[in-house]
Design brief:
The protein is an alpha/beta fold. The protein has 19 helices and 18 strands. The protein has three domains: 1-61; 118-366 and 584-601, Rossmann fold, CATH 3.40.50.2000; 375-577, Rossmann fold, CATH 3.40.50. It has helices spanning 2-64, 82-102, 111-121, 153-165, 178-181, 206-226, 236-256, 274-281, 298-301, 307-314, 325-338, 379-390, 411-424, 446-466, 483-492, 507-515, 546-558, 561-577, 580-613; strands at 127-130, 137-141, 144-148, 168-172, 187-190, 197-202, 263-267, 286-290, 319-322, 342-344, 349-352, 355-361, 397-404, 432-439, 474-477, 495-498, 522-526, 539-541. A hairpin with a 2-residue loop joins strand 2 and strand 3. The longest helix has 63 residues, at 2-64. The chain is globular. Bound molecules: 6-O-phosphono-beta-D-fructofuranose. 6-O-phosphono-beta-D-fructofuranose is lined by residues 133, 150, 152-154, 268, 292-293, 441-442. 6-O-phosphono-beta-D-fructofuranose binds next to helix 4.
Length: 614
């Protein structure tokens, strides 16, 4: 056995040497084989990678040149390249959005441009608009339900945007017949004649409306932000209602949202807490808040007992917009003063609690040409119609003021300027009247009731002093006029005087200009409006300076037609170029850019760990 085993072992030894010789040959063979295979695989990899890379590059080139759709890159055949492809797609979209925003002057800004942004940049993402004021109010008069459009700059601007974009507008249902008009989900389609979008109405009790709207929003924030020398009133119960109603609106936004990352457009000072409340429940939402009124300096804002809560509420926004850069700066200073936050004026951003808000200037505008112009009689006919309606002579020169009956609008100062004009230039007595259309507003607030009484008294005083049989220097109409009627007045007037003591933008100034395709008429405009920063061809005045304002009205009445034309033409060009579609479009483009950027970042984050595990 041992022998055999030894033999066997010898044999094995013999076998081993034989095998070793053979195996050396085989190893060489295998080595060459592997080397050859490796070379072929490497070559193939390079070729495939090269082809994929070229494909990718070609795809990217095609995308950039607009020849190919971004989704084409999804089909890249190399799985490893897919995350890169996705990131590139997002980047390319990002670049396209940036390129578009750089080239925004090249875009023909109208409803179609907005629809294109929604379709191409936002890929049909969900858009919700929220504001206190609704665009259409159902009001009951006996057996009849009338539909009114409220006098509101916010509605003037947003309504055409919504007609273009469709979607849902969430707002307080404040009309006496609003509940009768909605379906079981509190929705009603509007505009009544051509339904294009829906209103979701939010119901408030009388007490809530009193505390939230009349109280905190309009006796507190409104005078606080307007610095119109009306002392703001802050009451703890009003603040409680304000918080409750903001929470109610947040519930409705979340109820209406069909996706986790809708675009929510929040409007105005009634809803300052809403951005934070929505952010807490829909962290991936893009929240754009637009503040329609001025933002005061930190000293003025600092008297608000709940200043930190209001600021924190607003900083729930992804983007916070104001009409002017001046208001953006005031907001930066206010946050700097009262919150622990990183304020970067260079990049227009604020980082608070680890979240970033971009603070930007978006000067609001109007639809151009305005819908209310369609079907209007000629300017000459409008002039005759209005003078006939007022019962005045056909050659009476007309001044015009169109406002909500609000103490911020400078209506008293305006009347004082007219009185001074008639004192200084008696030749205008009997030859010039000023028509003031004042839409009743917030009438249950004492300050507004007192203001109306003062306005009526001053008009009576001037009419008593300079009026006579068949002639009133001030024609005061405290009643609601619809947009078509207002535009007929614009076309009939020789001078429009906007004398706000402080105003975010003031769209009356822009509407007057847009109404005058005859390039006639003169705009006298307060330097304390956002509009004065854009419409520099108006006669810009300090409305507190009664002498200067009277002189400006005199200048306007005496201005030669060529000069009127030159000024009007330039202002009309500006409004045409910077219309409300551009205002909304710029915000949506910025939202798209922000969403693309965050998608790129989250793709990059999710792609990295995968690469390591592989
Ligand atoms: O210009 C815009 C605006 O002043 C809003 O801030 C305000 O909501 C609206 O006009 C009119 O006020 P209200 O909604 O109280 O009628």
């Amino acid at each position: 056995m041992l022998e055999g085993r030894q033999l066997g072992e010898l044999l094995i030894v013999h076998d081993m040497s034989f095998i070793e010789r053979r195996s050396a040959d085989t190893k060489k063979y295998i080595f060459y084989l592997f080397a050859a295979i490796a070379a072929v695989v490497a070559l193939l990899t390079v070729v495939i990678a090269e082809l994929s890379w070229r494909g990718l590059i070609a795809g990217v080139k095609a995308l950039i040149s607009g020849e190919r759709d971004a989704h084409a890159l999804d089909g890249t055949r190399v799985p490893e390249l897919r995350p890169i492809a996705r990131d590139l797609q997002a980047l390319v979209r990002d670049l396209a959005a940036e390129r578009r925003s750089r080239d925004e002057s090249q875009i023909g800004w109208g409803p179609d441009a907005l629809r294109r942004i929604l379709r191409e940049d936002l890929k049909g993402d969900e858009v919700l608009i929220v504001s206190n004021r609704e665009p259409y109010i159902h009001v009951r008069h006996g057996n009849v339900i009338e539909i009114q459009q409220p006098a509101s700059g916010l509605v003037t601007a947003l309504e055409p945007v919504m007609r273009a974009c469709s979607g849902t507008w969430i707002a307080h249902g404040s009309g006496s017949a609003d509940r009768e008009a909605v379906d079981v989900n509190d929705h009603v389609m509007v505009p009544p004649e051509h339904p294009a979008y829906r209103i979701r109405r939010v119901w408030l009790t009388k007490k809530e409306e009193q505390g939230y709207y009349y109280g905190f929003a309009n006796e507190g924030l409104w005078p606080l932000c307007h610095i119109a020398h009306v002392r703001p009133t802050f009451r703890a119960p009003d603040w409680e209602h304000y918080c409750t109603v903001n929470r109610r609106f947040a519930d409705v936004v979340c109820d209406e949202a069909r996706t986790e990352d809708p675009i929510v457009l929040v409007h105005d000072y009634h809803l300052a807490l809403l951005p934070r409340l929505v952010r807490q429940r829909l962290p991936r939402a893009t929240i754009i808040t637009f503040w329609h009124i001025p933002w005061p300096n930190p000293e003025a804002f600092g008297i608000l007992p709940w200043r930190e809560a209001v600021l924190e509420g607003l900083l729930g926004s992804s983007i916070l917009g104001f009409h002017t850069q001046f208001h953006c700066h005031n907001f930066f200073d206010t946050v700097d003063r009262f919150l622990e936050a990183r304020v970067d004026r260079e990049s227009s951003t604020i980082i608070h609690g680890g979240e970033q808000t971009e603070v930007r200037r978006y000067p609001i505008s109007i639809e151009y040409p305005p819908a209310a112009l369609a079907g209007q009689p000629t300017v000459t006919e409008c002039g005759s119609q209005i003078r006939a309606r007022l019962g005045v002579s056909a050659d009476l020169r007309l001044g015009l003021g169109i406002d909500r009956l609000d103490y911020t609008k400078g209506i008293l100062e305006r009347f004082m300027a007219i009185e001074r004009l008639l004192e200084l230039e008696p030749r205008w007595i009997g030859k010039f009247s000023f028509v003031q259309i004042a839409a009743p507003s917030r009438s249950s607030i004492d300050e507004y009731q007192g203001f109306e009484a003062k306005v009526r008294a001053l008009a009576d005083q001037i009419n008593g002093r300079f009026g006579r049989e068949g002639y009133q220097p001030v024609i005061l109409k405290v009643e609601h006029h619809d947009a078509r009627q207002v535009y007929t007045y614009y076309r009939a007037a020789d001078v429009c005087y906007v004398s706000s003591l402080h105003d975010g933008m003031n769209l009356v100034a822009k509407e007057f200009v847009a109404a005058r395709e005859d390039e006639r008429g003169v705009l006298v405009l307060s330097q304390f409006t956002g509009a004065a920063r854009e419409l520099s061809e108006a006669l810009i005045v300090n409305p507190y300076d009664i002498e200067q304002s009277a002189a400006a009205i005199q200048l306007a009445l005496a201005m030669p037609p060529e000069e009127q034309r030159a000024r009007m033409r330039s202002m009309r060009n500006l409004i045409q170029e910077f219309n409300v579609y551009r205002w909304a479009g710029r915000m949506l483009i910025d939202a798209a850019r922000m969403r693309h950027r965050s998608r790129v970042l989250s793709h990059a984050r999710s792609a990295r760990p995968q690469a390591v595990s592989r």
